[in-house]
Write a structure and sequence with these properties.
Shape of chain B: globular
Oligomer: heterodimer
Strand content of chain A: 25-35%
Helix content of chain B: 25-40%
Structural class of chain A: alpha/beta
Number of strands of chain A: 7
Helix content of chain A: 10-25%
Radius of gyration of chain B: 16 Å
Radius of gyration of chain A: 16 Å
Strand order of the largest sheet of chain A: 1-2-5-4-3
Order of helices and strands of chain B: HEHEHEHEH
Distance between the termini of chain A: 53 Å
Order of helices and strands of chain A: HEHEHEEEEHE
Largest sheet of chain B: 4 strands, parallel
Number of strands of chain B: 4
Chain lengths: 148, 166
């Protein structure tokens, strides 16, 4: 079972949480919590288990961020959610050297939240004009703070 | 960056009318679908609502070969310079149709203080015909093309829609 293989592969990393998720309720078989520095190792374990990166986004919780990575597999129905708490004004290591698909995801998170990714090959804005000076999905960016 | 389409250098008189008739009945649109309106534009160009019977079914991907730019969709602030550039690359005489509410005035995505879109194509390029709808039905797009034909030829259509009551 891929879930058990993943749990075994993630065990030596000493992650905060590697738990079975309630698939019927949340849609995820595996719920993982990791620290930012451990994320490349988690991604390496996912890659070794033939999982692909489904999506990646961030949530602004006010005092900190919660980065959410979703992995899944084509061979077997096993969806994993990895949550990474990140402080404000902190950066995050990139996983784009392992998952090239994360390149644009990380650019989007940088564009909308301002989270910096270390060693990213091309960390430019993706959706907003490149000379924009704001990050719109932060909680303290008001709805009427745009230029219009 | 104003494109001046003022008086032509050579007045061709009656020949101009024939030329305008030719231009109106063979509008070559630029495939410029930006968002959902593009799907309705494709539907208008496809078999059921056929734009080809009006001579306007030849969608060209290059602005150099077009006379009509159909701005079909929301113009994000990042896309706006590209819209202007493509408009400038079209050779005169050229016309622009703002298709859908987003191209007319920002559509459902406009709210005071928004940061993402240009609320209307006519803020960046001169627009000749506005086709409202979200999205406009293919028949509405065809009506927009016919209105543009009337604007180009400066005369009414040969067959106007007659009221059912006569």
């Amino acid at each position: 079972m891929l879930k058990d293989n993943l749990t075994k592969a993630l065990a030596p990393l000493n992650l905060e949480k590697v738990a079975a998720g309630d698939y019927a309720k949340t849609g995820y078989h595996l719920e993982v919590a990791a620290q930012p520095a451990q994320m490349p190792d988690v991604a390496q374990a996912m890659l070794a288990a033939d999982c692909f990166l489904e999506s990646f986004t961030a949530v602004d919780l006010g005092e900190s961020f919660d980065l959410v990575y979703h992995f899944a597999s084509f061979d077997e129905l096993c969806r994993s959610a990895v949550h990474v708490p990140l402080g404000k004004k902190k950066g995050m290591p990139t996983i784009s050297h392992l998952y090239p698909g994360a390149d644009w995801y990380e650019r989007e998170v940088f564009d909308l939240f301002g989270i910096h990714f270390f060693n990213h090959p091309n960390l430019k804005r993706l959706l907003l004009p490149e000379d924009a000076d704001f990050h719109p999905l932060l909680k303290d960016f008001g709805a009427s703070q745009g230029n219009d | 960056m104003e494109t001046k389409t003022g008086e032509p250098l050579i007045h061709l008189g009656v020949l101009e009318e024939a030329l305008n008739l030719a231009r109106a009945n063979s509008l070559w649109p630029l495939t410029f679908g930006l968002a959902c309106c593009a799907i309705e534009m494709m539907a208008a160009g496809a078999a059921r609502f056929d734009l080809d019977r009006f001579g306007a079914g030849v969608f060209r991907p290059s602005p150099r070969q077009c006379d009509l730019m159909i701005v079909a969709g929301t113009i994000s602030k990042k896309m706006a310079p590209a819209v202007v550039r493509l408009y400038e690359q079209m050779p005169a005489p050229k016309w622009v149709m703002a298709m859908g509410n987003c191209a007319i005035s920002g559509g459902p995505f406009y709210y005071p203080g928004q940061y993402a879109i240009v609320p209307g194509a006519d803020l960046i390029i001169p627009v000749d015909v506005y086709v409202p709808g979200c999205p406009p039905r293919p028949e509405t797009l065809i009506e927009g093309i016919l209105l543009l034909e009337e604007k180009i030829t400066k005369r009414g259509r040969l067959r106007k829609f007659r009221d059912a009551k006569g």
